[in-house]
Amino acid sequence: NPKCSASVDPEGLHLLSCSKGPGRVRLHDGMVRAWHSMILSAGLRATVEQRGLYPDCRRPDIVVPDYCDGRELQLDFSATHPCLPTNLPHASRNRGAAASRREQEKRRHYSDCSGLFEPLVCEHHGCWGAAA
């Protein structure tokens, strides 16, 4: 990738986790499209990346209005890799630790959500976080 100066590792882990490459974005966008399709198939209304919910530039990936008792549900997706240096100490001991850590980061990021908020995090090896 011309935008990244890191060397590619033999396992290809960098390609999946590099913020400057297309791998992370493709995985994220694929998850959003799949979940959006499932929500619509269930007969619910949903919008993708709805703007104007927060005064800053944050926008959850999917918003389901009138989800429960008139409250909206906001979903924000993320993919993380358990072998990243920041995840490895915990992920090497506990399955799903990288997803759990990322869920906590997302919850802090959207702590001012007026509706229901759920982070949906998938590890690159397939483990989903508890919220999913």
Counting DSSP H or I runs of 4 or more residues, the number of helices is 4
Strand content: 15-25%
Mean pLDDT: 84
Low-confidence stretches: none
Tally of strands = 4
Please outline the major beta sheet: 4 strands, mixed
Strand order of the largest sheet: 1-2-3-4
- Shape field: globular
Helix content: 25-40%
Structural class: alpha+beta
What is the string of SSEs from the N terminus onward? HHEEEHHE
Cα distance spanning the termini: 32 Å
Q: How many whole angstroms does the radius of gyration measure?
A: 16 Å
Write structural notes for this entry.
This protein is an alpha+beta fold and 132 residues long. Helices cover 32% and strands 20% of the residues. It contains 4 helices and 4 strands, in the order ααβββααβ. The protein has a 4-stranded mixed β-sheet. A hairpin with a 2-residue loop joins strand 2 and strand 3. The protein is globular, with a radius of gyration of 16 Å.
Write out key terms for the chains shown.
4 helices, 132 residues, alpha+beta, four-stranded mixed β-sheet, single chain
Topology, pairings included?
Blueprint (H helix, E strand, L loop, with lengths): L12 H5 L4 H20 L5 E2 L13 E7 L2 E10 L7 H4 L5 H13 L6 E8 L9
Parallel strand pairs: 3-4
Antiparallel strand pairs: 1-2, 2-3
Quick overview of this protein structure:
32% of the residues lie in helices and 20% in strands. With 132 residues, it is of the alpha+beta class.
